[in-house]
Design goal:
alpha+beta; 4-stranded antiparallel sheet
Length: 166
């Protein structure tokens, strides 16, 4: 009960709104993890997003950024990337490294939320597979990040700058 009250105070919402947001997050995650959904599509066109260039295209980090878009009623940001070389991308997939999303218009830093039951809302398999799309969710608690905003994703030494939110 104490945790629920703390969440209500932090979000400035009643318990009904908190339950709705939590249910949306769980449903979104369940949908994305189902086989045959766009999360497992093999091309950016199948995902319906335009690929965005990253600072070091594919070569240095072993990934290609697909894009970033709002999800879960704009309370989350969905960062997608394609695995090109698992050995080079090992630093990005490292579970100990905490990713950050920096909003360029105001410099605020958003984190990957961590659920008590399922852990961080990001894919970080021990053995990443080539030509597979992976995701990370970033919390957008005040829904401050809007479509068209520019953001930078930082994961350890990796930095994807000036990504446009869809």
């Amino acid at each position: 009960m104490q945790q629920n009250q703390t969440m209500q105070i932090a979000l400035g919402a009643d318990s009904h709104t908190v339950r709705i947001v939590a249910a949306l997050m769980v449903l979104t995650l369940a949908f994305l993890l189902m086989p045959g959904t766009p999360a497992f599509a093999t091309s950016a066109e199948a995902l319906g997003v335009a690929e965005q260039k990253q600072a070091a295209p594919g070569g240095r980090w072993g990934i290609r950024v697909i894009g970033i878009r709002r999800t879960a009623a704009d309370y989350m940001l969905d960062f997608r990337f394609r695995m090109l070389d698992p050995e080079k991308a090992a630093a990005i997939m490292n579970r100990k490294i905490k990713p950050q999303l920096i909003v360029e218009k105001n410099g605020s830093k958003l984190q990957v939320p961590v659920s008590a039951k399922i852990g961080p809302l990001r894919q970080s398999p021990k053995f990443a597979k080539v030509d597979r799309n992976y995701f990370m969710f970033f919390a957008n608690p005040g829904r401050d990040v809007k479509a068209g905003d520019k953001v930078t994703v930082v994961i350890g030494g990796f930095k994807a700058e000036h990504l446009i939110v869809e």
